[in-house]
Amino acid sequence: MPVSAELEQALPRFVEYVKGSTEVQNQLHAVTEIDQLKGIVNGIDPVLTGSALIPYEQATSPPKITIDSGILSENILWRLLRCPGGPLVLQMICKQVNFALWIESC
């Protein structure tokens, strides 16, 4: 079952929250394991249930559809993208790891 567009708004809200907090940006730069990432994300918005550490090549490959992108103040590159027929995904490139976040459907 696909996630509603309304529910997907949690991803841009997450970006805005992180954009406003250098402390959270530094926490994301320090992540080395998926459980650390899940702890940070869950503390900001528990609706973001899908997460994965991804290789740099995947985090920088040309997406099918880019919705938005940017660079945060602590040099975290991010982009919201959608593959045809797939969920909205947030990718971030940090110092230690690169990761993707999404909302898992029921």
Write the topology of this structure.
Blueprint: H1 5-8, H2 10-19, H3 22-30, H4 34-44, E1 50-54, H5 56-60, E2 65-71, E3 77-82, E4 88-93, E5 98-102
Antiparallel strand pairs: 1-5, 2-3, 3-4, 4-5
Q: What does this entry look like structurally?
A:
- By secondary structure, the protein is α+β, with helices and mostly antiparallel strands.
- It has 5 helices and 5 strands; from the N terminus they run ααααβαββββ.
- The chain has helices spanning 5-8, 10-19, 22-30, 34-44, 56-60, and strands spanning 50-54, 65-71, 77-82, 88-93, 98-102.
- It has a 5-stranded antiparallel sheet with strand order 1-5-4-3-2.
- A hairpin with a 5-residue loop joins strand 2 (65-71) and strand 3.
- The longest helix is centred in the middle third of the chain and has 11 residues, at 34-44.
- It is globular and about 35 Å long.
- The N and C termini lie close together (6 Å).
- The model has no long low-confidence stretch (mean pLDDT 93).
Over all CA atoms, what is the radius of gyration? 13 Å
Overall number of strands:
5
Ends apart, CA distance between termini: 6 Å
Which term fits the overall shape? globular
Uncertain stretches of 5 or more adjacent residues: none
Largest sheet: 5 strands, antiparallel
Give the averaged pLDDT, no decimals.
Answer: 93
Discrete helix count = 5
Task: Write the element-wise H/E pattern from the N-terminal end onward.
Answer: HHHHEHEEEE
* Percent of residues in beta strands: 25-35%
- Name the helicity range: 25-40%
Helix/strand structural class = alpha+beta
The side-by-side strand order for the widest beta sheet comes to: 1-5-4-3-2
